[in-house]
Amino acid sequence: MNNLYRTGFVVLSLLAFGCNAPKENELSQVSSRPVFNPNPTGAYLSPEESMKTMHLPEGYRLELVASEPMIKEPVAIAWDGNARMYVAEMLTYMQDADASGEQEPISRISLLEDTDNDGKMDKSTIFIDSLLLPRLLQCVNDELLVNETNSITIHSYRDTDGDGKADVKKVVYKNDKYDVNDANMEHQRSGLDWNLDNWMYVTYEPVRFRYTNGTMQVDTIISGGGGQWGVAHDNYGRIYYSRAGGEIPALGFQINPVYGTLDFADQYSAAFAEVWPIIATPDVQGGPKRLRPDVTLNHFTAACGQSIFRGDRLPPDFVGDYIVCEPVARAVRRAKVINQNGKVKLENAYQRQEFIASSDMNFRPVNTATGPDGNLYIIDMHRGIIQQGNWTKPGSFLREKIDSIGLAKNTGHGRIYRVVHDSYKPGPKPNMLKEPSASLLSHLDHPNGWWRDEAQKSIITRGDKSVIPALRKMAVGEHGFFSRKPSHLARIHALWTLEGLEAIDKTILYKTLKDEHPQVRRTAVWISEPFLEKNDEEMIQKVGGLANDADHDVRVQLLLSLYNSKSEKAKAIIKEVLENNSDNEMLVASKVALDKNEGVRTYGKKLGKLAQSDRELILKGAATFKSVCASCHGADGKGIAIGGTNMPAPPLAGSKRLAFVEKNTAARILLHGLSGPVDGKSYTSIMPAMEANSDEWIASVLSYIRYEFGGAAPRQPGHIPGMAAAATDKAAGFTTRAELSPVVTPEEVKKLREESAGRNKTWTLEELADKSKQETAMQAQ
Questions:
Q1: pTM
Q2: How far apart are the C-alpha atoms of 150 and 134, rounded to whole Å?
Q3: In angstroms, rounded to a whole number, what is the distance separating the alpha carbons of residues 115 and 617?
Q4: Quick check: 489 and 160 in contact, CB under 8 A?
Q5: 205 and 189 Cβ atoms separated by less than 8 Å
Q6: Which one, of 366, 408, 410, lies nearest residue 99 by Cα?
Q7: CATH topology of domain 24-421
Q8: Which of 95, 320, 363, 508 could form an SS bridge with 358, CB 3.0 to 4.6 Å?
Q9: pLDDT at 8
Q10: Where is this region: Disordered (predicted)?
Q11: Segment among 87-101, 169-183, 555-569, 737-751 with least mean pLDDT
């Protein structure tokens, strides 16, 4: 299942896109090729020693921002409006190869400050203590929003007396029905990225959040959440996910997930999926097939912590580039983001090399971010083991490497670096927390995207209506208090700030629909959706004037935004756009994605004949499948391959293991995993054991995939050739004909779990076939 299959790291197991093609010299080799280390050790290196092992292109270097003992096991960072850094530290993550004590609530969030403005943190306080592996961070003015492992709840924390420690805590989001999330740590949310559209996006959960009046509003993402560890956005609100479990370094960035799921097989090439360590990397989950002859990782297996660089203190050609970590390779990838007729593609910025590569075995980059100073930040968990305990069990290939190299010895460390360039000095620190809203307006035109985002977020969450007149002038390009016309980015942020203040009106939209910059026009279409969904004929007519816009992104957004309107005029515009762009892959595919999304929206009708408890179990499994499993098996169960690579996992649609009477076989696979060829084909990953999840979790996923992709139930006695009716029913696990249902109950899972309690290895198809024959024979007697 989407993460269920994997051959590499299960990341943390917890755990302005470019509009032009890259210049010829951008896709080049790093100036000096590093020396390859074929025999690395797991020895601990100090920050200074470790930095000497880092290789970056000419002109770039790393500076140490923070390290142990100030921080330990860092996994995510967030800055408040004054550039104080909050660091989530998972202090119990894989402290040994058996994950001992992992569920103890002793993790923390530290608050770091740079008091002398030299770029290095010199003051540290424990802002929140006694947490269970904190996963999500987002600063909102003087509040910090936090989510912990095993819970859906999000809390807000504040420090009211200025001592650097939180003293006020309140719930801002809670779902009593799903409050306890006991899924494997790796299959839980991360992110909470405040996007340009004023919604916060996370991984896994099929929802997005909007912070309003001190609480979180929730909006459903119909086709499910995406990604695994990390969420990022670009200057124009495009969301980027990554999926370590599916060995996918980037996905979900073609359209906003609320419109559906859209990825292209060629959105990056097979060459892009390859990684280029400068060190032997034998500690991979999946064994030798994951390694080249020189024992280096041969492709992404732990992609995580991605970001789009939006700062102003690296060379201009860096702005808009995609950055993603690969901690198993001890590397960080830099990619060019290329817009081709509305379809986005990625290319490595260097030929057969990485932007950052280290020969320190403990270098484990897990997150990246653009900082307030305009530079790129790298979060290094700096440890020996990066894979979670499900993948390090005794007897596994990975465990042997961990033990032989001594990787379990290296825990309790952590570093945060910033990437700087010889030609640029870091920018000044902001002081936004006390800055008047009127002063924040100027930051909406700042060259550093972090400043623009923070100013927009601060103005909205303050709810200060006094700035609305100035925002209206900025949105339409009037100088206002600027000495020049606001940039197109300032105009876009002004529009979204007005939207967040509920101050958008048709007059502003009509003007900005005619803006000279296509991304402003696209933004105006996007923001007009509340009017379009209400079938406002005047607004539909205005946006329809862009049906033949010269820019592909504008036309795609027009299709996305008009889709849900019931107006005949809107339908006519959509028809016109599609007919005039029948040869445009992006537009055609977007329409298909929208149609599928609408099908999911009405999916419940197919469940009407089932008992309510069965429907609930299947629907819960559907949400899990879409957010956890689809990245490997495909949303349609037909498998997935991006970048010209082989499928990471076999298709589920039509699988023999989902035949109606094979309930126990499917349950055993999900509980203990599956290895070896499947129906004569080999896949890039193995199916790991999911027994760490609850019986209900296992049952819900099985029920959904049997319902959606499995074989039909026997319709009459003896429907299965060669079997009596009673044997058929018993083999299927039912006692009466009335119980013929695709549903697998938690009780049935519990029974199978107890039966195989001592098993510590994956199944093979041969073993499962023998098991099935034995059960059928016994039940037929």
A1: 0.83
A2: 10
A3: 53
A4: no
A5: yes
A6: 408
A7: Neuraminidase (2.120.10)
A8: 363
A9: 35
A10: 745-781
A11: 737-751
